[in-house]
Design goal:
mainly beta, 7-stranded mixed sheet, 4-stranded antiparallel sheet, globular
Length: about 120
């Protein structure tokens, strides 16, 4: 069974940075599209970024373009999300997810999800 474990969340002030990690086990991330999603209280889930390492493709949500970078280390079977210039509106629970076929910032196709890591950004 696919397992995803997120880490790296925390509390930062606006303008700060965090790097989230998603360690995958029982499958090879190079064969999947890996994505980051977030959900704030009272809001819908939002696609943040995704990566298809086999084709070297990345996708970003409009609200994070230019600030967040998704990457992957296939040797560690781990996906990262570098978040710079964080803003209060980035406060949310961040989830890592895996899709066998579809790739993008829409949740369709992402069938395996981690438990999430909380990011809090204060002004």
């Amino acid at each position: 069974q696919v397992q995803l474990v997120e880490s790296g969340g925390g509390s930062v002030q606006a303008g700060g940075s965090l790097r989230l990690s998603c360690a995958a086990s029982k499958f090879v991330i190079a064969n999947y599209c890996m994505g980051w999603f977030r959900q704030a209280p009272g809001k819908e889930r939002e696609g943040v970024a995704s990566i298809n390492t086999a084709e070297g493709l990345t996708y970003y949500g409009d609200s994070v373009k230019g600030r967040f970078t998704i990457s992957a280390d296939n040797t560690k079977n781990t996906v990262y999300l570098q978040m710079n210039n964080l803003q209060p509106e980035d406060t949310a629970m961040y989830y890592c997810a895996a899709s066998r076929w579809l790739c993008g910032v829409a949740a369709a196709g992402f069938r395996s999800w981690g438990q999430g890591t909380q990011v809090n950004v204060s002004s």
